[in-house]
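Researcher: Structure for this, please.
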Amino acid sequence: MGSSSIFSYLNTTSGASTVAIVFIIALALLVTSKMAGIKVYGVVQAILQGFLKGFGKLVHRSERKYHRDYEIGRINEKTRKVKIYRFLNELTIDLDLKRMGATPYQFLFVVLLGSFLLTVVICRALFGGLLLVPVMFPIVFAGVMSVLYTRANIAHDGRIEDVIEAENIICNNIKDGVVVAVRNSVDMMPISVRGYFKDFLDNIEHKNYHIKAALLDLNNNLGSISDDFIKKCIIFETEEEHGIVGMFNDVVEINNIKMEERTDMKRRFEEVVTEFVLGATMIFVFLVGVMVVYENVAHFYLRNPIGQIILALDILLLISEFVFITYLRAKEI
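Model: Predicted structure, token format:
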């Protein structure tokens, strides 16, 4: 809604009434707060803090419930809840939020809240109202997630390669145990994952973690790319069958194959992404050009509810295609 539309609305009876009501309410709150000796900013701040605190408790409760259900076997790797949680966990790792203490559910809450606020702004600016907020919110949320996902994938490829390199280093020194192998080779590991292995050693040597708990925590920090390797480490340590060192040779061979396949896959998907970006840009330029030249087309898409829904669905389709391409691009082999 432009400034001229705002002034036109204020000149109407409805607009003047709305402004008057807002002004009276604000004045009444101000007078009441002055008489009671309450600072308005303090009240707003207290309400906001209470709101965030309440949702914070809900998020932490959800985190605890997830881990409890996973530990007792109520949910497993095939459960949709676990798959979503692991996907969010991968994002927090790739966006370097895990080092800041962010959990998957905290990340999801912040993205949902930010997407909702962005949806309100877009609907007011583009469509002049909030009628399409329910329709636009999932589209904006998908758009925000695709941007974050694309940003995360820049680090994702590097993290996968660094984890594979660290696994190979450990596998080549595994004969005396996982802890000894990590301790002797931690300084040779890639910098991006070195800190997680140092945390693993700290959990074992200073916090008295059981080896399985420490390995599972390491798995959570490294991401799903290390699932198979960590499972073998747990079997190797807990079953005390050090004669099965040979299985780590298989890990190294499989990792080498993965690296070769990923190199070929990245080249192919870079071509696909380039073609998609060019196609989407041409469609966007054509649509904007048509709306600039033909006012009735612009009115249909920006002011007519049917046109707004069609435009929203077109945006959702483009975003969905881009998200799918990005997902395939970053999928672990």
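Researcher: Any notable elements?
Model: Residues 1-7 have pLDDT under 50 and may be disordered. Residues 157-258 form one domain.
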